[in-house]
Amino acid sequence: MKRPGESDLLSPPATLLPAKFRDWFDARGWQPHGHQLALLEAANSGRSALLVAPTGGGKTLAGFLPSLTALAAKPHAGLHSLYVSPLKALAQDIHRNLQQPIAEMALSVTAETRTGDTPAEKRKRQRARPPHLLLTTPESLALLLSYADAGEVFAGLTRVIVDEAHALAGTKRGDLLALGLARLQNLAPQMTRIGLSATVADPKGLAAWISPTGAYDADRVQLIYGRSGARAQVEILETAEGLPWSGHMARHALEAVYRRIQEARTALLFVNTRAQAEIVFRSLWQLNDENLAIALHHGSLDVQQRRKVEAAMAAGKLRAVVATSSLDLGIDWAAVDLVVQIGAPKGVARLVQRIGRANHRLDQPSRALLVPANRFEVLECRAAVEAVEARELDGGSLRGGGLDVLAQHMMGTAAGAPFLPDTLFKEVRQAQPYRDLSREAFDETLVFVATGGYALQRYERFRRLILGADGRYRVTNPRLIQRYRMNVGTIVEEPLLTVRLKNGRKLGEVEEYFIQALVPGDSFLFAGELLTFLGLKETSALVAKGGRGDPKIPAYAGGRLPLTAELSARVRAMLENPGRWENLPAAVRQWLSLQRYRSLLPPARGLLVESFPRGGKNYLVAYPFEGRNAHQTLGMLLTRRLERAGCRPLGFVASDYAIATWSLHQPTDIDALFAEDMLGDDLEEWMAESSLLRRTFRNIAIVSGLIQQRHPGQEKSGRQMTVSSDLIYDVLRKYQPDHLLLRATRAEAAGGLTDIRRLAAMLARVKGRILHRRLGRVSPLAVPVLLDIGKVQVAGGAVDSLLDEAADALIAEAMADLPEAMLDETPAQAELPL
Amino acid sequence: MNVTGLQAFDLNGAALLAHVSGGLFWPDEALLVVADLHLEKGSSYAPRGDLLPPYDTAATLERLLALVETLRPSRLVFLGDSFHDRAGPDRLAMQDRQRLTRLQQAAELIWVEGNHDLGSHPPGLGSAVVSLEVGPLTFRHEAETKTAAGEVSGHFHPKARIRVSTGSTSARCFIFDRRRVILPAFGAYTGGLDVRHPAVATHFPNGFKLIALGQRRAALLPETALA
Question: What is the ipTM of this complex?
């Protein structure tokens, strides 16, 4: 809410607000924000709108004001407005917050939530007698649309409010929601839409996504900007102790972080992976002499446990929470006055979102502390801070919708009512992600849903959809509808096992493959505790508290986001220009100076490639800064080329910044090695075998309905009841390589896990600009990536010390035989193992 | 014979060769054994709405035809669960029926009864038995707790997680000791059970060896190679 005395010159007058509402604002000492009034004006004139505003601007209230004022002015029978949030918990919090204005203004407005947690009885009643305002999630909306009465339920719908639209657009959940909105629009042609979004790089793209036509059209979708808040104060932690060369746990900085927690009222500590969360949480408790209430929050913890932490946070009972992206979105916590990002932020928009979780008041700056875990991360943090200051965000390019999601939507549509393909095709193209969908792809998807889409016609008898004499497709068997409803949604989980204590208490869920690698007696870190694995019992992993030996930590294979292209460009620009190093810590400046002396600084537009011998092998290190996914792909392709060139490659390792390969013989023609044509046959061949493609295929197979996560009556034992997607992938690839789902898999992987698009852009950029340096020994910049070699499991104690020995040897080698002058300018000489 | 991907071992006096495909060859008897083909597994899920790619039977039989072509056995023993369910043979596509006929032209087909298929097989294509004894070896679907030495069985679809330099990898495998060998599943849509699982481990109270199957190589490994 705006405080008295602020003015919004260009905003509509407050008289736009009905007297009852003005009085309510007055009574609370508030004045309506300009963007709240602007949104009301747009809605009153029958337009859709996208509100882009930072957190703390009364955004959610803005979204509801048009519906509340309309309902106050004129009674409405049935459902008036639908609110869709990406988080169940957020829908529940918003519902609670709505009660206040409704009660205090004595509005005769009913509001209810509907999520996966809503009891069946209530859900049934909600369809028969819907409330005025229904607060729900994309999945629950899809479910509502799959009932035959959807037409009646939604006939009078006036508005849809999509909260956190930026977090949905461009994802598969966003695809599903966009399709659902297109369906709704057909059932309720008068419906307008309101999108609520955090600050984004491409507001017009997002406006197209929320638009009823799937395109940005200023007449139909008004773009409204909230006033930007006070500039965030972002600081990078400098530690007296040595800055590590590699690693992601920031152990060296945790004492300093703990002191900041002591000084703050409530701190929110973000990390990038679940493994980091477990280690940081545990390490902080080892330092926690004052017994501060520090909690842990990540997506694998038991839901009850997570809700408990959130409630304690809301009640101001916690001093700090260590969290993954599980807390990126959500209700405002007024008490949070410090956000700490441990490890590099990886993207600017994500960092801004996280910073915004502190101090949800526009006139006070958010305070954030970035804690780089190694030297490269210092550069990345610095680049991110510059981008935040310049208010330049990354991301935002919308992508084409997935055909797997379309297949699911077709089944859901048919479940609701038989459909005419022509009508559905037109409707689907009103959804922005499917705007450019070809009729051919649409028809092929339809055939897939109906019969599997196989060249070999085996399933006529088992068709899922059948074309009636009326030209409409309908579902052949009610069981298929039940099955669709049980599996609705685009969130695919790895096969999970429940982690339980012997007394039955559930601690959370962990990937099956992690548990399979354990033997009884092994210890591991989970839910903030050291646990000993006792054995498997049905779908549970039984554990006991405590344990001996080096604990393992469950690492989620897909958990790490790669460095964004925008941030990467900033890091490269900073590296190239020593004039911009003055804000960097001395240890980093020294490291870069040494690199310049020993080798070269990576050029912003070109590519630095170094080669050097070490331990009888020939190392090749390149610095594309294109993120881990693209580098993994590059590593595979380079290895194949080295193989063909007779260099006998032995392995490679990729980080977000660099890629290193090692081989028995030295490669000669570096330009040829990095030539663009590597994205040809080699790529095809590798992609086919790659586990990344297999993972992508699994998601697509589940979302499209080829295989099911849950079967009616078999909720528990689903895992044994079906065929592994890897086996299906192998067979399908051999017998029908052009199958719809395989094409969808390749397309998705190209922009995702294999990141071929980014790799291709990089190869084109550096063509003719490859600088190759032949060195006598490892360069300072190469040390971090070489230290990543062999770090498959994060372990404590004994293994660490082995790694440390290897690290010391590498660093000493990089630092050996330096001229005195070089050492003189190094203020942190003591940390050099010379 | 010059065939790659073979690994030799002895069982109760019989010199056997484990092939990378999962087949077990006994040169002295010109006898080839394959276990757990689970033919028509893909189509078995169609009635409940899972329309899986119906190519698994073709994939399995083509691999088997290639193996028969290479090893030229006179007898081909299917070690049970050859079809995923009893009705499997009725669902065979014409091309797959022809593939089976080609197998029959190459070798005598013997179908050992399994718990899934109960020995059902396409009529006129060989004979069904509960178990089979040949010299020092007994062929049956599922290992028996108390057995005379020389038992060859399937049923469990053994696979093993093996330590490698970058972590661990999972592979289908033969598991054996001096008394018995359990074959990996040969079918295209068959998953596996880890050899550490009590159901498998209980049959090897005195330890075991593995022959792990990669893409091109069958590797003899000690129990200590497990991750």
Answer: 0.93
